[in-house]
Amino acid sequence: MKILALERELPGASAETFQPLLKDESRHVWELQQSGKLREIYFHAEQHSAVLVLECTSVEEARQILFSLPLVAAGLIAFEIIPLAPYDGFERLFAEKE
Q1: Cα(77)–Cα(12) distance, rounded to whole angstroms?
Q2: What does the alpha-carbon distance between residue 50 and residue 7 come to, in Å, rounded to a whole number?
Q3: From CA 54, how far away is CA 3, in angstroms rounded?
Q4: Within the chain, where are the H helices?
Q5: In this structure, are residues 5 and 80 in contact, taking their beta carbons and an 8 Å threshold?
Q6: C or N: which end of the chain has fewer Cβ atoms within 10 Å?
Q7: What pLDDT does residue 91 have?
Q8: In terms of residue numbers, what domain contains 67?
Q9: 3-class SS at 22?
């Protein structure tokens, strides 16, 4: 199952609170990419918030993976988790007219 995860910074977080965790965060993200669970990662161009594409067996697995990130564990960021399904609109092109 493909999962889209959109980061949001939690109230009270500051650059100073993020700084000591950033190297561990980067290492953990790299390990998730190497495992195949994290397929893609981007920054939102206008907000500098992370946008992740995960490949998981369930939303719960995605939630556990995201909770394992140091910035999430420290309560600095959270993620909106959006399960994705394949687009099926193309079948309209081939449907018999009634």
Answers
A1: 10
A2: 5
A3: 5
A4: 15-18, 22-35, 59-67, 70-73
A5: yes
A6: C
A7: 87
A8: 2-85
A9: helix
